[in-house]
Amino acid sequence: MRDPRSIVITGASSGIGEELAYAYAAPGVRLALTGRDAGRLAAVAERCRGLGAEVEDVVIDAADWAAMADWLSGLDRRAPVDLVIANAGVSAGTGNGTESEEQARRIFQVNLDGVLNTVHPLLPGMQARRRGQIALMASLAGFRGMPGAPAYCASKAAVRVYGESLRGDLAGQGIGVSVICPGFVKSRMTAVNRFPMPFLMETDRAAQVIRRGLARNRGRISFPWPMVAAVWLMAALPARWTDALLRQAPRKG
């Protein structure tokens, strides 16, 4: 969608979500932003207002089904949503030992349930209008399970495949679906990584790549291309060739 006027962005208090809010903020645009950090979210909202946008900012955990459904349904009645970017996510790994059940469940709750909680309250309105666009934040980590981040990789793989399937289901209803698969992007999430991150991208540049891809209704927005190529190769090779190499990779904390 080239000129969305009513946009929802979850996880907008930092990282890619924050930069996407700035990228879309303009006169005549209504932004609905959520995040879990009230202070950071308020600062993002204020800057977007300074860029001319009308902004509604609400502190909600994307994993809270009831709160998300209530807010999004009301929002869509007041200002029918053109574009929703389900960006909220958390990351953790096994750098401090085996991944706990609690950590794994929390990652799935935010990264996968949070996507469902964001998309489904808005689907009926988009289907009735036969217009809209859905963007799901997956990751290049969703193409090949990495030993250092099992729940994160699995949750992003689920988001990717879900979005690709949803795109086909909704194409005939006038609704576009795009899956976003970034590599390493500077953010609070990647700042805790204690290992080299190849082709680390600036957040504002990543936001512009995503915005261009969404304007063209691309099914998959993957970047940067050297990381895309490397991940595709790892996913295509037999596991017996890659397992030993990946076992030596540093673990995410």
Automatic annotation (TrEMBL):
Listed Pfam families: adh_short
Keywords, sorted A to Z: Oxidoreductase
InterPro entries in the record: NAD(P)-bd_dom_sf, Sc_DH/Rdtase_CS, SDR_fam
Family: Belongs to the short-chain dehydrogenases/reductases (SDR) family.
Protein name: Short-subunit dehydrogenase
Source organism of this protein record: Azospirillum rugosum
